[in-house]
Amino acid sequence: MWTRSVRMASQVQVPRPRSQPLRQPGTPRGKGASPGLLPTSFASDRGIYIAIYPVWLRAEDRFREEFTVALDASLSLVDVSELSPVQRQYVERLTRTRLHQRVFHARVLRAYADRCAMCRLHHPELLDAAHIIPDTEPDGLPVVPNGWSLCKIHHAAYDANLIGVRPNLVIDVKRRLLDEIDGPMLRHGLQEMDRVKLLIPTQRLCQPDPKRLEVRYERFLAAS
Ligand SMILES: [Zn+2]
Q1: Domain boundaries in the chain?
Q2: Is the pLDDT of residue 35 over 50?
Q3: How far is the CA of 51 from the centre of ligand 1 (A)?
Q4: CA 48 – ligand 1 centroid, Å
Q5: 127 CA distance to ligand 1 centroid (A)?
Q6: Counting beta carbons within 10 angstroms of the beta carbon of residue 1, is it exposed (0 to 12), middle (13 to 18) or buried (19 or more)?
Q7: Which of 30, 78, 97, 177 has its CB surrounded by the most CB atoms within 10 Å?
Q8: What is the reported pTM?
Q9: pLDDT digit string, tens, across residues 53-99
Q10: What is the predicted pLDDT for the residue at 41?
């Protein structure tokens, strides 16, 4: 359907639907960003598209019949024509990262059938694509074998090393958390996860990478 490239800072080129003008009658023509009204999508897998919205219209190329859009409000303030090469590289990298994050999220949730791998919660709006190795590290690639589909509470607990996952996919809850006495969220949401086996995709290519699991579990054990 689209996208040709993310070739410059804060830009994504999107074909202009022939039936939809860039501006509605009476809308100012200013150079600055304006809220995007276009349905924008990005190919995640063959035949699968991710809706990205809202987007901010930055320019129109009538010859190529393309829009240039910014993916979020902060990038919408960037005028790529005024950036230095180093700044352009930085913003381009930021744009690519955000695109990859959205694709990663879609692929992981799809692989896990929109369920939390720990508690089986089946509400996509409450699920995150969690990294096994954080994306701030060289090995923290946005690929399904480096991810889990986790609900918000289990994602936060995993990142905080309150919950770990053994290489054999069994959940390990920190001892001090098991010793606490509190309400139903602690009891049912966290303590009862101890020794539960994770639900993972049946497709081998989507299953967690054993080496990354080992590295991450060592960190869990080392965390106080
Ligand atoms: Zn959960």
Answers
A1: 12-98, 114-222
A2: no
A3: 25
A4: 25
A5: 8
A6: exposed
A7: 78
A8: 0.70
A9: 677 777 777 887 777 777 777 777 777 677 788 877 777 777 777 77
A10: 59
